[in-house]
Amino acid sequence: MSDQENTLTIDTAVESTDSDGANRTAPNSSRTILESRDLSVSYGQDRALQSVDIRIPSRQVTAIIGPSGCGKSTFLRCVNRMNDLVDAATIEGELRFDGTDIYGDDIDPVALRRRIGMVFQHPNPFPKSIYDNVAYGLRVQDDTENIDERVETALKRAALWDEVAGQLDKSALDLSGGQQQRLCIARAIAVDPDVILMDEPASALDPIATSKIEDLIDELAEEYTVVIVTHNMQQAARISDKTAVFLTGGELVEFDDTGKIFENPDHDRVEDYITGKFG
Ligand SMILES: Nc1ncnc2c1ncn2[C@@H]1O[C@H](COP(=O)(O)OP(=O)(O)O)[C@@H](O)[C@H]1O
Ligand SMILES: [Mg+2]
Question: Rounded to two decimals, what is the model's pTM?
């Protein structure tokens, strides 16, 4: 590990105490793990996110919905600094992970991305064996103690173990699309992150594979914070605890319990979007 990576020493042993000092012993305590304040993002002259304020709770599923182009992917990419790779992107405002400024000078994006993993729309396994895909992040960190066991645990948590046990040497590229996506989830969780960002992870999958991913997301929220972008409102309603509605112009219009958003949103624009009047 480089010296720089050592600077990312965000304390995660926080289950029992909130920032206000209150004891929260319930596993699904609503401690905030990701928080933005007045977060705006532009690509050149074009604004993609407009003054977004959000507090995403730990160990719950937060869905981000909204019409195409409203900044959903942009928001996710800010959270694990993937927008660093986009020259035209400028980011203003504040974004905090467990209280630490994600854009602070001392944050190493590579170390950050181990704490905040990402899964994309199209499964992107490496052209390596199933085992090597899951072991990848551990080997890169030179963290190979009990590696077989940790690979197995990650595959079990990703609900893939039963389908691949005994053939871990097989190429990941020979798996079905749905299996590849669960492998990418196993790869993300093998390094034991806090947050898993998912950008439309099931939209390229058939209904059966989609339903496996949805079941899995529900289980993952027992251990991890899941933030999922989906254009599928039924999916958001089924799997999430909280829903954030972004609308045209990159504005976060409403963020609340999923039941409230879908049954009785405060904003007419949100109601129109949910009921299919536009978008
Ligand atoms: N790399 C980029 N360069 C320039 N513009 C971009 C880039 N990525 C996204 N945009 C623009 O930013 C806006 C928000 O995009 P995006 O975050 O991908 O929306 P969503 O995921 O909600 O569909 C869109 O207008 C899109 O065209
Ligand atoms: Mg997108």
Answer: 0.89
